[in-house]
Amino acid sequence: MTHAEVNLDRGYAVVALQGEIDLYSSPQARELILGCLEEGRPTLVDLSAVSYIDSSGVASLVEGLQKARAGGLAFALIGVSEAAMKVLQLARLDTVFDVYSGIDACPAVS
Questions:
Q1: Cβ distance 84 to 54 under 8 Å?
Q2: How distant is the alpha carbon of residue 53 from its chain centre?
Q3: Were both Cys, which of 22, 33, 49, 80 would link to 18 (CB 3.0–4.6 Å)?
Q4: Please, which pLDDT band fits residue 110 given cuts at 50, 70 and 90?
Q5: Which residue segments constitute the domains of the chain, with CATH numbers given?
């Protein structure tokens, strides 16, 4: 992964990932995602700058979704790049996650 950061925006923790999310970088992505959820924050994962994602990266997203659901927190993917969307579609996960074009398209956090 080239870069990752967390920002707060409109009540959401936005985890912005960039570059390749693979076996070597997915632990960092997982840590950021789960950390936001452990703090009780509704979480969005911005995949707009992800050029590649493998099964370990997808597993980090699925784990985040499961943790969010268990905690009653919102969790969604935003700005999903074409490369990431192809992988999600192949795994048939594009209908499992809430996917939005950007934060403006997300429901308001109460």
A1: no
A2: 12
A3: 49
A4: low
A5: 14-76+85-104 (3.30.750.24)
Distance CA 27, CA 15 (A): 14
Q: Dump pLDDT digits (tens) for 28-67.
A: 999 999 999 999 999 999 999 999 999 999 999 999 999 9
pLDDT tens track for 16-36: 999 999 999 999 999 999 999
The H or E element that residue 60 is part of is: helix 55-71
Distance set, CA 38 to CA 31, 34, 35, 42, 103 (Å): 10, 6, 5, 10, 21
Question: Can you tell me the distance from the alpha carbon of 28 to that of 10, in angstroms, rounded to the nearest whole number?
Answer: 24
**Residue 54: CB partners within 8 Å, gap ≥ 6?**
21, 22, 23, 26, 87
Cα 69–chain centre separation: 14
